[in-house]
Amino acid sequence: MSENTEPVSERDGYSDGAKETPKKATKWEAVPIPMNAKAGYSQPNAKQSYLDNSMDTASHAIKGSEKQKTENWQRIQRTTFTNWINSRLQGGKSSYSGPEVYELEINLQDGVVLAKLMEVLTGLKIKGVNKTPKLKAHKIDNLTQVLRIMEVEKIRLVSITAEGLSQGQLKLIMGLVWTLILKYQIKFKPTAKISVKRAMIVWLQTMLPSSNINNLSSDWQSGFALLSLIDVIKPGLVPQLSTLDPSKGLSNCSLAMKIAKNHLKIPQILAPEDICSLNVDEISMMTYLSYFCDPAASKLLKWAQKMIPHMNIKNLTTDWNDGLALAALLEARFPGVFPDAPQLRSQDAFITLRRCLEICTERMGIQPVITAKEILDPAIDELMMMSFLSSIKNGALIALPDELDVSGPGLQTAMVGRQSQFTVDCTCGGPGKLFIDIYNTSLGKQVKHTMYESKPMIHTIKYQPDDGGELSIEILWSGNPIPNSPYRVSVTDAAQLKIINFNDHITTVNINQEITLDLDATKIGKGSLKGFYQYEDNEEAMTAEVQENYDHTYTLKYSFPRSGQASLHVYWNGEELPHCKVKYNIVNSDQYALLDPPDEQLFHTMYPVKFQVQAESEVALPLLTMVAACGEIAIPIEMKTIEGRIGTASFLPTVPGEYKIEVSCANRYILGSPFTIYAVDASQCFLANTLPKTMAIGLSHEFQLETKEAGPGAASFDIEDKDINRAFQVSAVEQGSLVIFTVTPLLCGEYLATLKWSDQHISCSPFRLSICNPKKCKVEPNLAEIKTIPVGKPLNFRVITKGAGPGTKPIVKAQGVSALYNAEIETYDKDDYSVTFVPWEIGKLEVSVTWGGHPIPNSPFDLEVLGFHSGMCTAQGEGLQRALTTMPAQFVVIADQPKLITDGYLAIRVTSVVKKSECKVRARDNGDGTYNIAYLAPQVGAYLISITVHGDHIPGSPFKMTSVPGPDASKCIAYGPALESTTILNIGKPIDFSVDVQSAGTGELTVKAIGPAGVQASVYTSKGDSLGIYDIRLDPIRHGKYRVSVKWANKHIPDSPFVLKIFPGVDATKCKAYGPGLEDGRVGQQTYFVIETKNAGAGTLKVRLHGVREAFNIDISPKDPQDIRTLEAKYNPPKVGDYLITIKWDDINIPGSPFKVTVTGDQTEEMFHKPLPHSLSDTGFEFGEDDDDFSDNAITMTKSLSETSGFDRDQYVTQEKMPDFGSVGKKGYKKHFTSEQPFKIRSDTTTTTNKPKMKMAPLSPMYGGQMYPSYGRGVVMRPAMMAPQMQVQPLLVKKQQQRKQQKRRR
Q1: Average pLDDT of the residues in 194-205
Q2: Cα–Cα distance for residue pair 1229/1233, rounded to 1 Å
């Protein structure tokens, strides 16, 4: 430990630095540091530290008494010491390198880090340190080297050994670190007077005089002190200081530490949370705050250098030892406190320093924390010197009010109205501000004064009392009273003698008129009063009679014997009182007279009233007093002109009424005064009722004229430039101040009327009167004859005003049940106006029409608005456009209003355009506002349908209608592929037919197709290319029998309903062919192959041979008569060659098709490997469904057609019975038909058999299976329509029928 121990100071809990002989200690004792502000490294008066007995300052690092707080402060202190070591090692110059310190007891026990730290702190190099100690001996050697360096640095340690450090004893290590912080970081040199904590607080108090810093814990929790310290060191870094919230301590501390780190390069060895903590460690706070000492010292040094540049100051320690710099700084900071500073000598350093400290104490109020002896010591502590210099920098001189000197007569007596003064000498009073307050305590008011600096620090005060009484003169120096303040001064005031009611005193008097003057002397005390009066043209004074009253007032009595100018003089105790001097004008009222005054005459207000006054001399006229009084109003009268002895006076009567004109001289009326005039003001008259703009002939109107405020006069009503008796009948009566004119117009026209009061127009006069005759107006159409109108329909009528007199436009008001309608009025012609409005509310409607504000005849008109109109009705239905001559046509009228027909509001007419004849119409009221209308138009042609409501056409009416002939379903013809018995109908293929209605009249075509289980097929109808032809297409979703109903005008056409058999869709992939005939063969050997079409749907089977010309034929027949879906094809190839056998189902190759067959043998003919187009053999079959429809059909053999068909008798055909469809009831389906099919088909070219070709005419398409000749290279096998039996039909016939249908459609 350090050699110097610090006993505890009772003042702040820290040791005071007194030296004490250390005691031997055998172990380290853990003493927690108390967390309160007054706790130091030991309890008060307890001489203990880290050791049991006497220890130095380092022992205070781990001291405390409260066990529950030990962990908190130990953690904070431990973290702070660790961060301090790391901050000093960063960038430090050292020959050793080691890991960053994380755990003090681990990282410092080998001596490497400690050696590096000492090299950084001292600048010395420590030799012999093992950089990688492995053994305990190596660690102890390193620590021994470090401790030796500490001894060189005069750090005397007690009981700190290398052995203890190597064992990682935390208490020893933290005590050692604190010792290093004190010496190298805080740089504090302990003294017996102050501890390090106190020194730190004193320095912070001088830096922050307004922050009230008293500890190192709670005063820093808000962060404001830390931010203020930064702002003092470097102003401008914390501009938002005044706006921060003190309650947000953590945020403020974080901001302060961030600014300090970024701008002052102060490491954050302490966390903001630790500063804000209630358990903040003061040791850690001292360590962190010590970083601010260097920037603060640098700034303080610059300030001192600026204040005393001639002293060449370079540090804050030794340059101040001789006291010369300190004396110069005091004189520079506070001029005059050390005037002889330039003459001081360094030999008198102790005296100079002691004098400086006395000045600081007496003149600045500073209690220095350092003594003259300590400043004189070259080893002076820098922190203490910084605190002392900062107190001088931030301090100020104190005021010394006891040193002020006052003198002057103004502090003893004073006179009212006379200036007094005194002086205040502040030379020895120090810095301060002089304040003077002079107060009249008798009257409770301030006394004004002036103050100026006659000499430096010497002030002269002057004041002049305006009132008598006692003055209190208070003299303050920087807010503190000087000795004997306030001074009491008595003021005497002769001016307190005053004339009583002087403002009422008349100074123009008549000769020999007794004058009395009262004076008040109650505030002046006892004395002698005298009065003298004399004329200005005579120096001889006359004495006035003086009477002293019991209440200390005086009365003077006197009179003047002649005219002229005179004055009264008053003396008090022989001294004239100027403020009591009174001047008089003495006149003789008998020398004036009025000349012909306008007595009892009438005048208008604001017009001048003039009169003349005659005097014996010209000079005497201005002495007259003239007033015109009207009630409480008094108007002064001035003399406007004076010609010789006659003066002309005038005034303006401002209000109407009776005026009394008084002309006097010295309170006496002159001859002819007073006299009376009357003033009138017609502008004060007003009409008590409304002024009409238009009047009607025969209708009287009262003009009520109020004249109360107009003054006396007479009212009149007249017409300018016209005979009023011819145009109006007028009568007038008076009711008090109200004059009522009853005016009845007699003639129409425009008149300019006047209302006057005493021949003066009133405010609204003249005014125009328009006289009209509303009885001449009329309405067309006459609304009185119209009782009902429809709602929502515009109501139009005209107002004719011919002969009704002047007017702008008629006024129309339409009032419904609750709605008021705005009528649009347009000028139709001169004296003719068009009125329009739309009633939208059902119910009563009152329409009033006025002309010139007067109702016209029959106005108001009462109408009823009904809840409908023609615009609210609509009509719809086919009967509005077309009708049939053979049946009634219909349409519907929608009005939303029942009983329109019953009430006669709804009318319907159907009229022929050509014959002008009307059709019979029938209407039915449905009771819900709709009406069914039916009519019969028996003649072909154009018609007009008129639908009106209240006589107005509804929208679209009249409707144009055309009557056409009626429909005849028997004339319709249906045809097409779907209706032909030879057509196989499949799902997925077009099922089309057409209906020809050209001769069937007008009607509607309806088609329905109902299939198995009631399923309906979709039906598409469109008009064909030819007029009157409809194309029909069915789209069934299920196969089976469909009943197709075709109706025209809801009646079946011939043969309707049609029964169609719909087969499933074709699937060629279900077919298959196999057998040796599809493989290679030999000439002369008969071969075969089998074709199966089961589950392939209804379709056409085509077999085509492609190969050598006239090669061979293929014979195809059912393999089993009970299974016609399985066919056997046989052939005997006579020629060698390559052949292709193509097998198609419904024009689609079956799987494997075409099949390539090569025929070989002994034939010597040339082989053809490339088939020719004309060497094609084509055979075709068509099949229907292979389902239960074939179960009842007998298959037999017959030769009945062999002769007619050209076949040999050895040729075979099959015969199948047609299923019985008699239940359908259709022609052609009740009988059985035979289909004969040759299965041995030869080619159409020359064959080996040389048999003739088939030549057969096709049978009727209405019947079932038949045989058709083979016009191509094959045959087609088809079932009959709606039957799964086989029949034959050439392909060419089918194509011809298709072309025929297309032509028919075109």
Answers
A1: 88
A2: 9
pLDDT given for residue 1185 in this prediction: 41
**CA neighbours within 13 Å on the CB side: how many for 304?**
29
Quote the distance between the C-alpha of residue 925 and its chain's center.
Answer: 59
Contact predicate 566/518, CB 8 Å: no
Answer with the residue of higher pLDDT: 42 or 2: 2
Query: Are the CB atoms for 793 and 811 separated by under 8 Å?
Result: no
Q: What is the pLDDT of residues 419-465, one digit of tens each?
A: 889 999 887 777 778 889 988 887 888 888 888 887 888 889 999 88
| pLDDT above 60: residue 1270 | no
Alpha carbon distance 672, 883 (integer Å): 118
Rg over alpha carbons for the chain, rounded to the nearest Å, is 71
Q: Is the pLDDT of residue 630 over 80?
A: yes
Q: What is the pLDDT of residue 359?
A: 85
Reported in sequence order, the residue ranges of 1095-1194 that DSSP labels E, i.e. its strands, are: 1099-1106, 1114-1120, 1123-1131, 1137-1145, 1155-1160, 1176-1183
| Cis geometry, peptide bond prior to residue 1118 (ω within 30 degrees of 0) | no
Q: Does residue 287 contact residue 200 with C-beta atoms inside 8 Å?
A: no
pLDDT averaged over the chain?
A: 78
CA distance 303 to 232: 13
pLDDT (mean) for 588-606:
84
Of the candidates 762, 767, 714, the one whose C-alpha atom is nearest the C-alpha of residue 739 is 714
Specify whether the CB–CB gap between 703 and 717 falls below 8 A: yes
| 1070 phi-psi bin (left φ>0, alpha ψ -120 to 50, beta other) | alpha
- Chain CA centroid to CA 1225, Å: 83
Task: Give the span between the Cα atoms of 1275 and 1270, in whole angstroms.
Answer: 5
SS3 letters across 885-926: CCECEEEEEECCCCCCCCCCCEEEEEEECCCCCECCEEEEEC
Using pLDDT thresholds of 50, 70 and 90, give the confidence band for residue 1295: low
- Across the strands, what pairs with 922? 934
DSSP for 1016-1067 reads: BPEEEEEE-SSTTEEEEEEE-SS-EEEEEEEEETTEEPTTPSEEEEEEPPP-
Distance CA 932, CA 894 (A): 9
Strands 973-975, 952-953: parallel, antiparallel or unpaired by DSSP?
A: unpaired
For residue 459, give the nearest of 410, 415, 396 by alpha carbon: 410
Q: What is the mean pLDDT of residues 334-357?
A: 88
SS3 content of the chain, % helix, strand, coil (to 5): 20, 35, 45
Average pLDDT over residues 55-64: 39
Phi and psi dihedrals of 1068, rounded to 5? Answer: -65, -20
Half-sphere exposure of 730 (CA within 13 A, CB side): 20
Predicted confidence (pLDDT) at residue 681 exceeds the cutoff of 50: yes
Identify the three-state secondary structure at position 573.
coil
**Which residue did the predictor score with more confidence, 304 or 1202?**
304
Q: Which helix (H) or strand (E) holds 260?
A: helix 249-263
| In contact, 685 and 710? CB cutoff 8 Å | yes
Q: Residues 518, 520, 522, CA angle at the centre, nearest 5°?
A: 155
* Distance set, CA 1171 to CA 1077, 1083, 1089, 1115, 1175 (Å): 18, 17, 21, 21, 7
